[in-house]
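The data are quoted verbatim here:
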Amino acid sequence: MPRKPLKSTRSRDTKINRVRAITNSLVGNETSDDLMEKILESLTITEKFPTVGKFYTFVYFPKTSGIEYDTHPLVGVTNIFNWGFKGINFHWGEQRQYTWDEVVGDLHLVYSQELKDLQAIPFKRIRINS
């Protein structure tokens, strides 16, 4: 009996990895805001509150003036508190904290197999809060 042909790895990856198409389409002149918009459109599963051990990206504007921050963090959540949460920000390579009131909109769930692709997309936006 003849075997069925194997499905293309590329099509299987795009079903599992919702941001692979963005990575594959990069030309190098995209703005971080445009890239973040595409990412948020692709990551349609959202949560109001994070879960420890899961990965998220979101829009963030802190209230503390004079601090350097990432407007588009990519975070692995490590702790949750009544004031917000802490997590490893993959753009900074260190733990950062995020307060509930400064998270704009929802947290967009990132699957672990999408992390490498998201790290290859230059969507971080580092700013100093004035």
Q: What stands out?
A: Residues 43 and 78 are 21 Å apart (CA to CA). Confidence is low (pLDDT under 50) at residues 5-14.
